[in-house]
Write a structure and sequence with these properties.
0% strand; 20 helices; 440 residues; Serine Threonine Protein Phosphatase 5, Tetratricopeptide repeat; mainly alpha
Length: 440
């Protein structure tokens, strides 16, 4: 999913615990849940649940999704025995949903998140902070699939709840504002995104302080918005400030620092400052390897970005092993049928196309498209780029008829995306929660 013209990573803001624990998008909910449940825990079954949850989160933190899933499944069984009200069960389902989201199993993640949401609405009520947490989980899942209308509606509901519970100027409300802005950014609705990000940033600076690491995430997202518009001079100092804050808060070898380095490197790359970008990408790869392991998906992503930099410079022999390693890691951690793997295959296909290795390139494009088309809720913008890249290869091979069919398919997907993006202003009750099926 990491094309040469990729947009930088966008952080979904949750809470400080997410940053510190670095265990995924649902870390905040688990921390709150455990804190609440601490006053009623003590029985042996409860301790087994807590132990399984802790083991699952440790595995999730290290990128061992198979072990994480096994632990959370065990925790779910314990929760179903000891927690008839479902509070522990909701926490467990949320973590299972996170694992499945990381593995690209979007339908399974959706079912788990919806079950957790139903429990929280029943136990806590529809206007509780825990309910807002589940809405945020679903909203992020739909954003990752390009289902922006659904995503925006859910994040708007979460914001409304947090405004009611915490107040309009609370940091929790600012988190939801950040998430709404990210949905706008993904759609390149920069005029809508900027004031929402600015408001979130103002709240966080007032409530948490301008040097707080959570504030730095929203500032980082503002930089990403400027970068996506080619305003590198505005993005650069924001990225640099976020990097300085996170290095101070977490040390120079933390994964969040590595992500800051990637974003800063992306800005240098966009300005053709390749030596500066290379140093930062290499440092990011090193940090991810040491902190998360050689086989973590974040390591794969950093390798892929470095490979793209080398490809831009014509350093094909240096780019190829990085793309190959990224594919191997994602296949191991997320499964060979994951859309994340499809993105990496497309990157390697593009590299071979640049080297005029057209047969090898075509095989990889075909593999990539098959994965996208068999995935429910795949990244359709990445799919369109794969279709267009493959079409350009076919034209080079004098197969214009096949190329035209792929180009028409790409236009159809883009038209569908455009129609979806035009349907704004719906409430969550108006929005169907089922993902859109892939275009045949």
């Amino acid at each position: 999913m990491y094309e040469q013209d990729q947009s930088p990573n966008v952080n979904r803001l949750t809470t400080e615990e997410l940053i510190i624990m670095n265990i995924g998008l649902n870390a905040r909910a688990l921390t709150i849940g455990l804190a609440f449940l601490g006053v009623v825990s003590g029985c042996a079954v409860d301790q087994r649940w807590r132990s399984a949850m802790q083991e699952g989160n440790q595995a999730l933190r290290s990128g061992d999704y198979t072990h994480a899933e096994e632990s959370f499944v065990s925790a779910r069984k314990e929760a179903e025995v000891i927690d008839p009200q479902g509070k522990r069960l909701a926490e467990t389902l949320s973590q299972l949903g996170e694992v499945n989201r990381e593995l690209g199993r979007f339908p399974r993640a959706e079912a788990l998140f919806q079950e957790a949401l139903a429990i929280r609405e029943r136990v806590y009520g529809p206007a509780h902070a825990e309910t807002a947490a589940s809405l945020t989980d679903l909203g992020e899942l739909y954003r990752l699939q390009g289902l922006y209308t659904q995503s925006e509606a859910l994040h708007q509901r979460a914001r409304d709840i947090r405004e009611q519970v915490f107040g309009a100027d609370h940091s929790k409300t600012a988190e939801s504002l950040n998430n709404i802005a990210v949905v706008y950014q993904d759609q390149r609705r920069f005029a809508d995104a900027e004031p929402v990000l600015q408001r979130a940033l103002a709240i966080l600076e007032k409530q948490l302080g301008p040097e707080h690491s959570t504030t730095a995430i929203t500032r980082d997202n503002l930089a990403k918005m400027y970068q996506a518009q080619g305003q590198h001079a505005r993005a650069m100092p924001l990225y640099q400030r976020a990097l300085t804050i996170h290095e101070k808060a977490f040390g120079p070898h933390h994964p969040i620092v590595a992500r800051n380095l990637e974003n800063l490197a992306d800005t240098y790359r966009a300005q053709n400052q390749y030596p500066q970008a290379e140093v930062l990408y290499q440092r990011a790869v090193s940090i991810f390897k040491k902190s998360l392991g050689n086989d973590h998906v974040d390591t794969a992503e950093a390798m892929s970005r470095l490979g793209q930099l080398y490809e831009l410079q014509g350093l094909y022999s240096q780019a190829e092993p990085l793309f190959q390693q990224a594919i191997a890691i994602r296949e191991k951690q997320q499964g060979a049928e994951s859309p994340h793997v499809a993105g990496e295959l497309k990157n390697l296909a593009g590299l071979y196309q640049s080297q005029n290795k057209l047969e090898q390139s075509e095989d990889l494009y075909k593999q990539s498209l098959v994965i996208y088309e068999q995935s429910v809720g795949y990244d359709r913008e990445a799919y369109v780029k794969a279709l267009k890249s493959y079409a350009s290869l076919l034209r080079r091979r004098q197969r214009s008829g096949e190329a035209e069919r792929l180009e028409e398919r790409a236009k159809a997907v883009l038209k569908r995306l455009s129609l979806e993006n035009q349907s704004q202003g719906k409430t969550a009750a108006d929005v169907p929660l089922a993902p859109v099926a892939p275009v045949p």
